[in-house]
Amino acid sequence: MRERRRVQSRAGARNWSLQRSLHMPTIWTESCWTPTQMDYLRLNHRLTVADKEIGDRLAALHEGDSPPQPALSYKRATGAERSRSQPIARISRL
Questions:
Q1: Which domain holds residue 39?
Q2: 63 within 8 A of 12, measured Cβ to Cβ
Q3: Cα torsion through 23, 29, 33, 34, rounded to 10
């Protein structure tokens, strides 16, 4: 996961984190922020062959019938005008 963090950070992700579920210790969630939705879309297109191999190795650790699916969450501060510099996309992989 250290390699994954390095890859994501180099590709433009911010505030990368890895969390483990307290109720189901086998469940891990990776999350990070991108400044805009376009930056999120670019994130996956900036990967090198070596970066993709890291992702493949991590995907092989997954136990389940279907592959992990990204879940997007858009956040905006309430009561505040949105500026282009505010982060609006969050990536979580379950």
A1: 2-93
A2: no
A3: -150
Q: What are phi and psi of 10, to 5 degrees?
A: -65, -30
Half-sphere CA count of 83, side-chain side, radius 13 A: 3
DSSP 3-state assignment of 77? coil
For 24-58, what is each residue's pLDDT tens digit? 898 888 888 888 888 888 887 888 899 999 989 98
Q: CB-based contacts of 38: which residues, under 8 Å, 6+ apart?
A: none
Structure token pair of residue 87: 């982060």
Number of domains in the chain: 1
Question: Residues 6 or more apart from 42 whose CB is under 8 A from it?
Answer: 11, 12
Tens of pLDDT, residue by residue over 59-83, are 888 888 888 877 777 776 666 565 6
Taking residue 42's Cβ as centre, other Cβ atoms within 10 Å add up to 13
Indicate the angle between helix axes 49-59 and 2-11, nearest 10 degrees: 140
